[in-house]
Amino acid sequence: GGGFGSGNAVGNLAAFCVGLAYGLYSIIARLGRDRDMSGVVTGWAVLTILTCGAFMALTGITAATPMLENAYAMIHGAVFIGGGMYLLNAAARHVGAGQLTLLAQTETILGPLWVFLAFGEAPRLTTVLGGAILLGGVLVSALGRGFSRDEAAEVAGRASV
User: Fold this and answer.
1) Alpha-carbon distance 15 to 101, whole Å?
2) CA 138, CA 121: separation in Å to the nearest integer?
3) What distances in angstroms separate CA 54 from CA 24, 45, 50, 60, 66, one per listed residue?
């Protein structure tokens, strides 16, 4: 909440569109749970290249960057983004779209923690409180849906013996 009003309308719209696109992706990944959706990651990468290329062309931004920054970007895209999307596709076969989206929020929760650990940038209190609420929701969801009703009854039956 402390960040509302910062930036500009284009940046805020882009951030909103990212959330919308991610929600749609979660639904599509769940709908295709009976198929191998790993090819979608490649299509997503191509769409990202085309979108970023068009943005760069329209704004006059150059693609010339230092070699080290290029290496960081390639590692980030291949390992973190590609690997994360592969794992998200694998998870979509086993959990519902709502739970999948909720579990993926751990990225939002842990982001400020990684920045704090790597750069010493302390998050705002509201950020920590919001993260705690999200983490609580993720934990309740994971614990509440961790067992089927039959498994829960079986565990309860063994505990009472």
Assistant:
1) 17
2) 25
3) 22, 14, 6, 10, 21
One-character DSSP codes across 66-105: -HHHHHHHHHIIIIIIHHHHHHHHHHHTTS-HHHHHHHHT
Q: ∠ CA 15-49-23 to the nearest 5 degrees?
A: 40
Cα separation, 92 vs 72, whole angstroms: 28
> Which whole number is the average pLDDT over 118-124?
89
pTM of the model: 0.48
Question: CA 50 to CA 19: how far, in whole Å?
Answer: 19
Residues in the chain: 161
The amino acid that residue 149 corresponds to is R
In whole angstroms, give the CA distance from residue 65 to residue 49: 16
pLDDT for the residue 158 = 57
